[in-house]
Structure formats: C-alpha cells, structure tokens
Amino acid sequence: MFKRLFGITLAFGMAATAPPAFAQSCAQREHVIAKLQDSYSEELVFGGLQKTRGAQTVMEVWTSKETGSYTVLVTQANGISCIVAVGTDFFEAIPKIKLKGQPS
C-alpha cells in the first residue's frame, strides 16, 4: 500500500513541477517582436487585456499581409512573451452591411 501511495505521489509531484509544453516558445518580448518583424514581416493587428489566474496578461495577434502568416502572443507583466498559436492563411472577417428600409 505504501509503495503505491508513494509512486502515485511521486508521479503527480513530477507532473505538477514540469514546465508547460509551450515554455520553449517564450522569450523577452523585444526578442519575439524583432523575430516576427524581421523574419516573418508580421505586424500587430489587434490585442487586448486578458485576466488569467488572478493576473493580467496582454494577448496580441500579429499578421503578415504579404504571406498570410499569423502569430498569437501572450505577454506576462514581467515582459516575457509566449507564442501560443501560429498559422497561415490569415483573413479578416468583413461585417455584413445592413441596408435600411423594408425588404421587398
């Protein structure tokens, strides 16, 4: 019984202290932004504040009109940015225009 309990405790303890999978995609914001601009010709399109785990982070979407690539960043208050998503074929949704008047 003790061996099982010890094994389970050890396994959960190791899982709890393991770094997140996307931690390898994190760096100082200046370095990430420079790489996006220089290597991928991406520019900031939109962003906003995001409240996570009691702290606020900044979520940003960077895109390139030339290549259609996009990158989603989350920046912590300490200046570390993590890439949480990347992709291709970015597009902007165009809102429908509502016409005034009665439908015929």
What can you see in these coordinates?
The chain has 104 residues and is an alpha+beta fold. It has 2 helices and 5 strands. It has a 5-stranded antiparallel beta sheet with strand order 1-5-4-3-2. The longest helix is centred in the N-terminal third of the chain and has 16 residues, at 2-17. The protein is flat. The chain starts with a helix and ends in a 17-residue tail after the last strand. 11% of the residues are buried. Mean pLDDT is 79; it is low at 1-22.
Offer a few descriptive terms.
104 residues; 5 strands; 35% strand
What's the topology here?
Elements: H1 2-17, E1 26-28, H2 29-40, E2 43-52, E3 55-63, E4 70-75, E5 80-87
Antiparallel strand pairs: 1-5, 2-3, 3-4, 4-5
- The residue fraction in helices comes out at 25-40%
Q: Can you tell me the overall shape?
A: flat
Would you report the number of β strands? 5
Strand percentage, roughly? 25-35%
| Structural classification | alpha+beta
Q: Report the uncertain regions.
A: 1-22
Give Rg in angstroms: 21 Å
Overall mean pLDDT: 79
Give the strand line-up of the largest sheet.
1-5-4-3-2
SSE topology string: HEHEEEE
With helices defined by DSSP (H or I, 4 residues minimum), what is the helix count? 2
Largest sheet entry: 5 strands, antiparallel
- CA(first)-CA(last) distance: 78 Å
